[in-house]
């Protein structure tokens, strides 16, 4: 089963995804953390997420090649947190949308329970900066690609997850 939680920043999508995967997983689920770029703010966010998930997950880190890491964990469900950070990483490493699409397709072809988290960045104004516009465009396309292939999709607002698919 593939499931997507999408929502704005600080909408509660990560917590909802964590609770969901703990319900469906027969063993301790894997938390696949995609964060690569570390500054003081990012470190604080990582610490908040670590505290939130406590010892309820096996944490692994992978910034680019999600399919290989997910394949290693064939006996348990995997939470990918978060695809927006992964898109950022891929753009930073000058990967094309086609590279991202290929990687997502490899993940979707695996017969594993995977829960994805992605930011909904489509509700704001069009950014003035070209790189920010590219990120918004690619993140939106990846969200559409993943949502189309997922069995369930939840939109999260103010901590409340609403099933939309």
TrEMBL record:
Has the keyword Nucleotidyltransferase been applied to this entry? yes
One BP annotation, GO: cobalamin biosynthetic process
Q: Which reactions fall under this protein's catalytic activity? A: adenosylcob(III)inamide phosphate + GTP + H(+) = adenosylcob(III)inamide-GDP + diphosphate; adenosylcob(III)inamide + GTP = adenosylcob(III)inamide phosphate + GDP + H(+); adenosylcob(III)inamide + ATP = adenosylcob(III)inamide phosphate + ADP + H(+)
EC main class here is transferase
The record's annotation in InterPro entries points to:
CobU/CobP (IPR003203), P-loop_NTPase (IPR027417)
Source organism's superkingdom? Answer: Bacteria
What EC number(s) is this enzyme filed under? 2.7.1.156, 2.7.7.62
* Pathway(s) per entry: Cofactor biosynthesis; adenosylcobalamin biosynthesis; adenosylcobalamin from cob(II)yrinate a,c-diamide: step 5/7; Cofactor biosynthesis; adenosylcobalamin biosynthesis; adenosylcobalamin from cob(II)yrinate a,c-diamide: step 6/7
Q: Which CDD domains match?
A: CobU
Is this entry keyworded GTP-binding? Answer: yes
This protein's UniProt keywords: ATP-binding, Cobalamin biosynthesis, GTP-binding, Kinase, Nucleotide-binding, Nucleotidyltransferase, Transferase
Catalytic site: 49 (gmp-histidine intermediate)
Q: From the UniProt record, which GO molecular function terms apply?
A: adenosylcobinamide kinase activity; ATP binding; cobinamide phosphate guanylyltransferase activity; GTP binding
Query: Which Pfam families does this entry report, sorted A to Z?
Result: CobU
Q: Which residues bind GTP?
A: 7-14, 61, 81
Similarity-based family: Belongs to the CobU/CobP family.
Per the entry, what this protein does is: Catalyzes ATP-dependent phosphorylation of adenosylcobinamide and addition of GMP to adenosylcobinamide phosphate.
Q: What is this protein called?
A: Adenosylcobinamide kinase
Q: Which organism is it from?
A: Sulfurimonas paralvinellae
């Amino acid at each position: 089963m593939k499931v997507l939680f999408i929502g704005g920043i600080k909408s509660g999508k990560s917590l909802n995804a964590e609770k969901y995967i703990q319900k469906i997983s027969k063993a301790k689920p894997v938390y696949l953390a995609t964060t690569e770029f570390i500054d003081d703010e990012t470190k604080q966010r990582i610490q908040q997420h670590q505290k939130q998930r406590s010892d309820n997950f096996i944490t692994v880190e992978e910034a680019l090649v999600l399919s290989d890491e997910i394949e290693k964990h064939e006996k348990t469900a995997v939470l990918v947190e978060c695809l927006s950070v992964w898109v950022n990483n891929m753009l930073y490493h000058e990967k094309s949308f086609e590279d991202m699409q290929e990687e997502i397709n490899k993940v979707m072809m695996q017969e594993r329970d995977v829960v994805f988290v992605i930011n909904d960045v489509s509700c704001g104004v069009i950014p003035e900066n070209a790189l920010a516009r590219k990120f918004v465009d690619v993140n939106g396309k990846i969200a559409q690609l993943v949502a189309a292939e997922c069995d369930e999709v939840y939109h999260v607002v103010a901590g409340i997850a609403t099933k939309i698919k």
